[in-house]
């Protein structure tokens, strides 16, 4: 029994990062369905994005102040412009387009397309010379083959809808199918735009962290600035209707709180993995790709 317990402890220590990424993906899966359920009950994606980013920034602010206040450089105009661009490409734009696309398609398609982000980051890293590609080596061939297979699978899931699966008689979450039937291609394009924006933000974030070495503080800036940008768009699309912004003790509030908690846990998870792998392999592009597999 002692040997079995020791073996299990060693196994858990060896694959702890893999377990963390699996748990992160499970949390994301629940987030997709809860959020889509909230959209079917009146919540609009831009309003959801505003609440989620604003609450997330406020939650992370005390941690950033306590942990990183003594080692952050002063903000310059150029650095602030980079953070604003990072907030647009990494929070407001991709989140709004992703959930708009998910509402037009389905959580399954949105999640499948979202898995192409590591492939896109890999391509951008090669183009920007953040990573060298040795096509004749086994690792290079595996990266290229994995990227091609991933994109091919996403393309098939996006274009071919297939036959509906048999449903349970009593489903815990009931979602309407009208938008899925009418706006499938539009939603797929929006999710692809979200993935491209996210991928660009990861490359930009790697460069920004060299001049602003505070992961939590940067996340606070991105959330708060992204919330302000999203609020402008949400105000324009909702025309400041009180019903679009009202929250009660219902599924809308549940979706927002769950989204904030899930992203906060995922952020801590990815920062932990990022720091560990960066000190182990000192390879920025590979480190980003490894961490992105948990997003």
TrEMBL record:
The lineage of its organism: Eukaryota, Viridiplantae, Streptophyta, Embryophyta, Tracheophyta. It is a multi-pass membrane protein. It comes from the Eukaryota. Residues 19-158 form the EamA domain. GO terms for molecular function: transmembrane transporter activity. Belongs to the drug/metabolite transporter (DMT) superfamily. Plant drug/metabolite exporter (P-DME) (TC 2.A.7.4) family. GO terms for cellular component: membrane. The keyword Transmembrane helix applies. It is found in: Membrane. It comes from Kalanchoe fedtschenkoi (Lavender scallops). InterPro entries: EamA_dom, EmrE-like, WAT1-related. Pfam families: EamA. Keywords: Membrane, Transmembrane, Transmembrane helix. The chain crosses the membrane at residues 17-38, 50-67, 79-99, 111-130, 142-160, 184-204, 216-236. This is WAT1-related protein.
């Amino acid at each position: 029994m002692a040997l079995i317990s020791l073996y299990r402890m060693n196994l858990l220590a060896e694959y702890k990062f893999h377990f963390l990424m699996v748990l992160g993906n499970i949390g994301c899966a629940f987030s997709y369905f809860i959020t889509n359920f909230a959209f079917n009950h009146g919540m609009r994606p831009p309003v959801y994005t505003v609440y989620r980013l604003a609450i997330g920034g406020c939650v992370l602010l005390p941690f950033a102040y306590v942990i990183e206040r003594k080692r952050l450089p002063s903000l310059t105009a150029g650095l602030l412009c980079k953070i604003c661009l990072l907030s647009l490409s990494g929070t407001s734009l991709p989140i709004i387009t992703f959930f708009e696309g998910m509402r037009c398609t389905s959580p399954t398609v949105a999640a499948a397309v979202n898995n192409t982000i590591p492939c896109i980051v890999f391509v951008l890293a090669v183009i920007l010379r953040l990573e060298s590609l040795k096509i004749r080596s086994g690792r290079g061939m595996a990266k290229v083959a994995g990227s091609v297979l991933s994109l091919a699978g996403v393309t098939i899931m996006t274009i071919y809808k297939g036959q509906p699966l048999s449903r349970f008689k009593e489903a815990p979450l009931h979602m309407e199918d009208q938008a899925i039937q009418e706006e499938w291609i539009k939603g797929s394009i929006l999710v692809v735009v979200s993935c491209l924006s996210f991928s660009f933000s990861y490359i930009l974030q790697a460069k920004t962290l060299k001049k602003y070495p505070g992961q939590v503080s940067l996340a606070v800036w991105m959330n708060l600035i992204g919330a302000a940008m999203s609020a402008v768009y949400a105000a324009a699309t909702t025309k400041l209707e009180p019903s679009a912004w009202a929250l009660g003790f219902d599924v809308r509030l549940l979706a927002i709180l769950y989204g904030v908690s899930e992203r906060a846990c995922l952020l801590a998870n990815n920062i932990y993995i990022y720091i560990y792998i960066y000190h182990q392999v000192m390879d920025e592009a590979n480190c980003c790709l490894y961490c992105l597999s948990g997003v």
